[in-house]
Specification:
Blueprint lengths: L10 H18 L1 E5 H20 L2 H10 L3 H14 L8 E8 L6 E7 L2 H13 L1 H8 L6 H26 L3 H27 L1
Helix pairs in contact: 1-2, 2-3, 2-4, 5-6, 7-8
Length: 199
Amino acid sequence: MPGTRKLGRPTAHRNLMLRGMVTYLLEKGEMETTLTRAKEVRALCEKMITLGKKGTLAARRQALAFITKEDVVKKLFDQIAPSYESRTGGYTVIYKLGPRRGDGAELALIRLVKDEVVEEEKASKGKGKAKAKTAAKPKKATATAKVEAKADDIEDLNVETEVAADDVVEDDSVAEVAEDEAVAEVVETTEADDSSETE
């Protein structure tokens, strides 16, 4: 339950640490920390965004009493809170990153939900859930784009082999063999990619 974790610190130290983390998250938009700290920061950050949505003088003063930088409060009330006007909660998202190398603590990335996601939700309310899911997925590259990318790779390899051949050996036959090997290698990787896509 948010607000009940002691985080291994005395009350004053814990509160100051959380205030600093909320300020940093609102200032930068994302932050990497441990999972338990991220869960505590999420609750406090969402309360600050809710204060920002109220927009009253009393709410601004409450935010100033908690957030440690005045310019972050200004950003909260002028930019962040208005972008979440139609959203009733869930202003942050937490991604688990795995254990930390030194002590094995579970790391997490907490970030503010982007404005594009908020706009997509506005658009998807009228269209339905199925279309919203398809809109969120990135489109796959077409076969022609892949062929063009492979052609660029072949040209790059040709330039590299020509430079290497000029520097090392003046013999043209060695350069042609190296170029043919490079082209064959790119063709093999293209065929492997195409066969994996058909599966």
